[in-house]
């Protein structure tokens, strides 16, 4: 199936979502490609590659820790500098990384100088997993690079091989126009991020809004209060929630929701599992790290959204060597409409075409208990 989605449509989708979460798992296709497919259908994945890791003149996205490791529109870089500043001071993040902000800072600065003088480098570029000085084992070098990344000193220049990050100085990757944008106050940045969350989520609780960019409760609470006072957020009552919901003042309320989509485990619609249960009465957990004999639904399971309900889930795998999209197990939810399997089959065929896989092979079909 030829892709018919252009750059403009993809940009609008990215802008609407604000971020695409990155994950190393590549069972069906890498996670950051799936949210756009779920919303737009078949598109050329190199559009995302060029926007994220292509020539500087084509860059529209950058990598940083937002919800988790994510691709974000360049315009959000100033809104996340507070997080970089905190990392630079040794606040937040993993303990092993925080040490590079304090007692091990000199080691990290030597790595930074190496990148400054030699150009973009991956962790594997350091000789035998060490720096030229021979001071650090592989794990230490990688940790120093990750601290430099979190602190905003370096960012991802490109990806290579098995999706390995290649780092460069932030100012050599992020466009000068973005770097020149004044850094907003922390409070202004928090409010802007909460508003973006609200635009994307539609109706959401305070917890939902802060989870989107992983803000701390006190920062989110103050931002929500301020946005309510400004009339940007409208408090609403949602039957069955037990918590106040918030609706962005510009939110559209469709009379009817139609469509079908397979959703990535890290899709913004469902990544906050408690919200997924509130919205869809759908209990969902990713079972990659669950022993095979204890998995209930499968290894890499994609929920199937049909109109305004999640009606099934399917354990998928791309068998690239055989040219097949494997649906090992399909679980149909209780009360799913009669056309569920037919519509799911259509979406699996569309996904297979998008991934240039010639055949869809469906295994077991079961009814959820």
Would you give an account of this structure?
Residues 129-138 have low confidence and may be disordered. The longest helix is centred in the middle third of the chain and has 16 residues, at 186-201. Strand 12, helix 14 and strand 13 form a beta-alpha-beta unit. The chain has 14 helices and 13 strands. It is α+β, with helices and mostly antiparallel strands and 369 residues long.
**Share of residues in strands:** 15-25%
Helix content: 25-40%
Q: Overall pLDDT, averaged? A: 93
Strand order of the largest sheet: 9-10-11-12-13
Q: What is the radius of gyration?
A: 22 Å
The poorly predicted ranges are 129-138
SSE string: HEHHEEHHHHEEHHHEHHEEEHEEEHE
Q: Please provide the count of β strands.
A: 13
Distance between the termini: 36 Å
Give structural attributes:
single chain, 369 residues, alpha+beta, 3-stranded antiparallel beta sheet, 36% helix, globular
Short description:
The chain is α+β, with helices and mostly antiparallel strands and 369 residues long. It is built from 14 helices and 13 strands.
List strands and helices in order, with pairings:
Blueprint: H1 7-17, E1 20-21, H2 34-40, H3 46-53, E2 61-65, E3 69-73, H4 81-88, H5 95-98, H6 105-118, H7 138-150, E4 154-160, E5 164-169, H8 170-173, H9 176-179, H10 186-201, E6 203-204, H11 206-212, H12 217-229, E7 233-236, E8 245-248, E9 260-262, H13 273-280, E10 301-306, E11 309-319, E12 324-332, H14 340-354, E13 359-367
Parallel strand pairs: 12-13
Antiparallel strand pairs: 1-3, 2-3, 4-5, 6-8, 7-8, 9-10, 10-11, 11-12
Helix pairs in contact: 4-7, 6-7, 10-11, 10-12, 11-12
